[in-house]
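Record type: monomer structure entry
Structure origin: computed from sequence
Chain ID: A
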Amino acid sequence: MTTYLLAGGGTAGHVNPLLAVADALRLRDADATVLVLGTAEGLESRLVPERGYELLIVPRLPFPRRPNRAALGFLPKFNRAINDVAAILRDRRVDVVVGFGGYVATPAYLAARRAGVPIAIHEANAKPGLANRVGAALTRSVGVAFAGTRLRHARVVGMPLRREIETLDRAGSRAAGLAFFGLAADLPTLLVTGGSLGARRINRTVVDSATTLTEAGWQVLHITGNAAEVEDPKLPGYRMIAYCDRMDLALSVADFAVSRAGAATVCELSALGIPAVFVPYPVGNGEQRFNAADVVAAGGGILVDDAAFLPGWVQAELLPVLAEPQRIHSMSAAALSAGVLDGTARTIALIDEAAGATAPHSA
């Protein structure tokens, strides 16, 4: 029986691929033990137990950015975290550590190196975080979601996707999706989403362009997010919802999309061959722009700055694309060529490779 320790958390970008891999490992071998290392504050504190996995907690320890009193106390706390993880590796007889980035991954990598436990890494973003840059120096089993990711020993494995996305039959599910959302069967569908919290610029611009889009012969499925500040225009052919718990059906009906460029969103859309306008989140280190780079370069997406995504841009740039079915078909094929649908299986193969040099403790 193999024992896996999956380390990662904080955001959905780390937690969701971790859970996809955990589910696939458990599906492959019901006798395997899958443990998850995370923090008490991150999204994993809720999602991991809900999915039925044991969550082992380590402190959230951001690396200090400047010398100050907090920085002086960081090193002793960090060393304690490494020691705590080393004790877990020993006591739970862990066979392989799999890191997905985030605060908990660095002490996991260093404890594994000290204990001689194999390490595998998955980096979801095109611009890798500090934890995985550290970890990549300790193992050759490094998988990335995007070809442009600059990380030591990196190879493209794609994004581990939710099973309902990996197995989605879009054509077979389309009728069910149209019925679920109350959409027409004889109109193409524009899917608009900014993520669970929404995206202010996307929401405002699409609502202000609602009449333009529907008069152009498109129906709109607009998922605003729970914190949206827009009102439903209540137009025929315009379906607005705050939250969607059936994204598989939303993706089944989508002929084109407008979205942020989070790693998971970019990977899901491209793996399913859905062309999109990507509006990267304008705050942070700019990784969303890099996430979309491969599919945009392939011709399967269009990149537009948040500040430029205005009703005038929709009128001048998006509508001409939506008016050309052949161009949409070509963009769909290009998106599909840049996508990876079997990222979970490829990541597990990487884990198996890392673990191969060491037999399971119980063997």
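Annotation 1: The chain has 16 helices and 13 strands.
Annotation 2: The CA atoms of residues 86 and 111 lie 5 Å apart.
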